[in-house]
Design goal:
three-stranded antiparallel β-sheet, alpha/beta, globular, Rossmann fold, five-stranded parallel β-sheet, single chain, Arc Repressor Mutant, subunit A
Length: 528
């Protein structure tokens, strides 16, 4: 008889740990001891993996896809591979079965040698140790009755889960209505992302000063999201290994301002890569490249700000403010040692899990016209969830409020949009001196009084002509000699820009203008 799913998962994790570069014989001994405690043997592992359901929705590894096998083919594939004259294409599976059996040998030298050969097999066929468990589980699938979902999970929730989560958040933390609805939708999103979506937008929780409720909101979400893993500090290696060995889960990172994200490019790239399904990082371990999958939802709390590439992957930035005394008095105390509080979140999770098991979502919800570029992709899953729960209009209003005015969180796009406003609305001209353009941009948007560079990683300073040139140069836009119109004998030229230099970039990168596009007619240069 198979042990509980929790024990099966523990056994699976022990097996996967054999894939670590610093494994030793003691790791295998601990696995064998755990098996013995539950009257199991090494040969029981495939059934254990199947009982844990590790390959229920997993994508096919390269080894299976190469030969056009599915998970359901594995029992017959391994059976046929054991025959003396098996086809050549089945030989890798026979070798896998043989090496796997030898790793459990009582002969330590034989087991150690088999483990090394199994690792070489993994590299050759582009597998990881987690995929070993999936293949072996599929091999044993007919021998293990599938675990039916509990009867309660087959029934829809008794309440509207979005309204429920909104009310729970309102009890414990002060946020704006828009921030509260995006937080609630994100908590629900984590339960369906691995089944329904190929994008996992991030959620940023920021505040200007400490004691503003960031950590509290993170702790509340920890009780509501799918398989939470919360930490106050982590390296890139710790994160991608946690995602690799912990499988599908939701990362909640606090103290983001202490992670060194502006300096640590490896950590930043790891967090960015988890945004897309199939995101991965590759490291050389024990002389061989190894790939770690990183896809999954992420909530990141920090003081101040985050790097622009990471912000652009966020569905929203929740700006937390310290509650007033009156607001604080209306809040319930969040204490997980209080049985009443625990009961509230236990009941909420049960309803959320029922919803996730029975919900049907539209993958093409209506997107507000105020959202552009990546914000469209980021909000699509949350709007689909909101529509399914009858709160689509409230979610769209929140999306517009939180992201409609965000110009891709990128100072270059902000500059291009501002230049269009200056040329087409403020000056109504087809050319402008660089010095005049910089002055007009600063007058239009005080963001440029404390500009922190193209990557938002420098000390704040006022925008200069050189700074503007640095922003525009990646688009091939450079200053030209500009003459006033009409040109007279005493006219003087200067370095500046023509409207025609920007038209293509406006079409590609900027939100549509509210006013009709101006034709490139010749208009006099504004006087200085």
């Amino acid at each position: 008889m198979m042990p509980s799913p929790e024990v099966c998962e523990q056994i699976r994790a022990r097996f996967v740990s054999l894939g670590l570069p610093d494994w030793n014989e003691a790791d295998r001994d601990r696995l064998l001891k755990l098996l013995a405690e539950h009257d199991l043997s090494w040969s029981s592992l495939p059934e254990v993996f199947a009982a844990a359901g590790v390959n229920a929705t997993a994508p096919l590894p390269d080894l299976l896809a190469r030969y056009h096998f599915s998970w359901g083919d594995m029992p017959k594939v391994f059976s046929d591979a054991s025959a003396p004259q098996s086809p050549k294409r089945l030989r890798p599976f026979r070798q896998l079965a043989q090496l796997f059996g030898l790793v459990g040998s009582v002969n330590i030298n034989e087991a150690t040698s088999a483990r090394k050969k199994l690792d070489a097999f993994r590299v050759k066929h582009k597998l990881n140790w987690g995929e070993f468990t999936m293949i072996l589980a599929a091999r044993a699938a007919p021998a293990v009755a599938p675990k039916p979902a509990p009867a309660s999970m087959q029934e829809p929730p008794r309440v509207n889960v979005l309204d429920l989560v909104l009310r729970v958040l309102e009890m414990y933390v002060v946020t704006t209505p828009a921030a509260r609805i995006v937080s609630a939708l994100y908590a629900l999103f984590t339960h369906v992302v691995f089944k329904w979506f190929s994008i996992a937008p991030r959620l940023a929780v920021l505040s200007p000063v400490e004691v503003s409720g960031k950590t509290l909101l993170l702790k509340l979400l920890e009780q509501l999201v799918f398989r939470p893993y919360r930490t106050d500090n982590a390296t890139a290696a710790a994160i991608y290994r946690q995602l690799y060995f912990g499988a599908e889960q939701t990362l909640l990172l606090d103290e983001g301002d202490n992670l060194g994200l502006f300096e640590d490019k490896t950590l930043r790239a790891t967090l960015n890569s988890g945004y897309d399904y199939g995101g991965k990082v590759t490291r050389v371990i024990d002389g061989r490249p190894r790939t770690f999958l990183t896809f999954g939802p992420l909530v990141l709390a920090a003081l101040g700000k985050l790097p622009l590439p990471l912000l652009s992957r966020c569905v929203a930035t929740i700006n937390m403010l310290r509650p007033t005394h009156d607001e604080a008095r209306q809040l319930e105390r969040f204490d997980l040692r209080n049985p009443g509080v625990v009961a509230i979140f236990h009941a909420a999770r049960e309803q959320i899990e029922r919803w996730a098991a029975t919900c049907t979502l539209s993958l093409d919800p209506q997107i507000p016209s105020e959202l552009h570029l990546r914000h469209v992709d980021n909000w699509r899953p949350l709007l689909a969830i909101a529509d399914s729960l009858g709160r689509g209009e409230a979610a769209r209003a929140a999306a517009v409020e939180l992201c409609g005015s965000r110009q891709a969180d990128n100072s270059t796009i902000r500059a291009l949009t501002g230049i269009r406003t200056v040329l087409d609305e403020t000056r109504k001209t087809d050319r402008i001196l660089g010095v005049v353009l910089v002055e007009d941009l600063i007058a239009l948007d005080d963001f440029w009084l404390n500009w922190c560079g193209p990557q938002d990683d420098r000390l704040p300073r006022k925008l200069t002509q050189n700074g503007l040139a640095e922003l525009l140069s990646p688009f091939g836009i450079r200053t030209r000699t500009v003459w006033p119109v009409p040109r007279r004998a005493d006219s003087k030229s200067g370095r500046g820009y023509y409207r025609s230099q920007f038209v293509d970039m406006w079409d590609r990168y900027c939100p549509p203008a509210d006013t009709p596009t101006q034709s490139a007619q010749i208009i006099g240069l504004p006087a200085r």
